[in-house]
Amino acid sequence: MVSAMRLPRTRGGAAAPLLFVLSLFFFTDAPLSGQEWAGEIRLSPQAEVSMVTIYPGEDLYSLFGHTAIRVWDPRIDLDILYNYGQASIPFDANFVPRFVRGDLPFMLGVNYTQRAYDFYKNVEDRGIYEQKLNLTTPQRQEIFDFLAHQARRENREYIYDYFFDNCTTRVRDLFKDLFDEELELPVSGGGESFREQIAPYLEGLPFVAAGINLLFGPRSDRPPQPGEGLYLPFQLRDAVEEARLAGVDRTRPLVSQSRMIYRQGRTAPQAPSLGPGTVGTALLLLSLLFTLTPLFVLFQHPGKAGLAERIERLGRVYDTVLFVFVGLLGIAMVLLWIFSGYVMTYWNLNLLWAWPVHLLVPALAVVRRRVEKLYRYYFDITAVVALLFLFSAPFLPQRFPLAAYLLAGSIFLRAGGGVILSRVRRRRRLGAV
After folding, report:
1. Alpha-carbon distance 141 to 136, whole Å?
2. How many Cβ atoms are within 10 Å of 7's Cβ, its own excluded?
């Protein structure tokens, strides 16, 4: 749904990144951008208004597809595409932070249709599906006047939101405002939550899916409320295809003709052989190994205490990596909760095990002998809370990905195992005295 995030890896050779950047800032032609002239244009009876659905691409910004409105009038040689998915600030160091915070201004861009289609076909290789709307001449003029007014410099910007205010919801709301009670838009989803509805778009991208599912909170696990549905391009495409306008028998379809302008040549992305499940399982097994092996050596081979210490040192190196990673993950969750405008990231229950303070574990390990009691208490609490999370997760109002269980299990094993090993050594020292 977003038309700008990062340089694409799509076909086009060395020129593709340059074309992409040019598309962001020069895709909207200067004579079209302000739309001050559009209020003077009266469409002819031969004019057509179509909804255009751009299929998902390979890159993060294009994973969910895109929606636009085409206005074509051959009588006056007018053919433009209205696009609510255009970033209105430069792609600089502030772009991604503002996008993450949820205060990135997007705008209604205006492009020559053929130029836009050429970009989607030749640079990004994305399918283009066009639905000609079955409108009267006054209705076509009303849509054109509304879009022209919205595209004026003083009106065109808005703050983008993944679910509630994007290129698709803007077109959905345009239809609702134009037709009011005359239009029935069937809502798809069948009671699925936001998280479930976006899942098919993330197939073949397991690390992206795991990251999104870890960062989303419980609000993503409720189904859309009335007025919130049809926020994905394919959802609106299918709803518009089936929609009917008010009449004597409500048989007048909203779409008079549908056609595939371009069918993409590439296939769906294949999931990598090494996914988050494999990595998480490896971490869990390493946690188990570094926890049980020193205990086994101490109990079964008391004379090899030096070997147990060497394994412990390796375990502490592993702990540094594990706890720092989980701590950084927790910081990202807190920042998205407190500073982001995306409500889907609020009250993230993954923070039950992904504590930001885990970043301090390496420092705590360095001074462990001076703060032995604090060290034990911290890991006691960490192990207990991680275990409680693992048992209670199925009953919490948030769905957790496999990665959450594997990481929480690794935290439990290392925290609990560290405490047990520390107490075993302490008792042996006391026994020796």
Report:
1. 9
2. 14
432 by Cβ neighbours in 10 Å (0-12 / 13-18 / 19+) ranks as exposed
Supply the pTM of this predicted model.
0.83
Nearest to 418 by CA among 318, 329, 261, 312: 312
Phi, psi at 105, each rounded to 5°: -80, 125
Q: Are strands 48-54 and 128-133 parallel, antiparallel or unpaired?
A: antiparallel
> Which residue from 82, 92, 90, 88 is spatially nearest to 105, judged by alpha carbons?
88
Sign (positive or negative) of CA dihedral 419, 425, 428, 429: negative
Question: Using the 8-state DSSP alphabet, how is residue 92 labeled?
Answer: S
Tell me the CB-side half-sphere exposure of residue 344, using CA atoms within 13 A.
22
Cα separation, 62 vs 254, in Å, equals 27
- Alpha helices, DSSP H, located in 217-304: 233-242, 276-300
pLDDT in tens, 119-152: 999 999 999 999 999 999 999 999 999 999 999 9
Rounded CA gap, 76 and 317, in Å? 71
Q: What tokens were used for 22?
A: 């040019």
Rg (alpha carbons) of the chain, rounded to whole number: 28
Q: Quote the CA–CA distance of 164 and 360 in Å, as a whole number.
A: 37
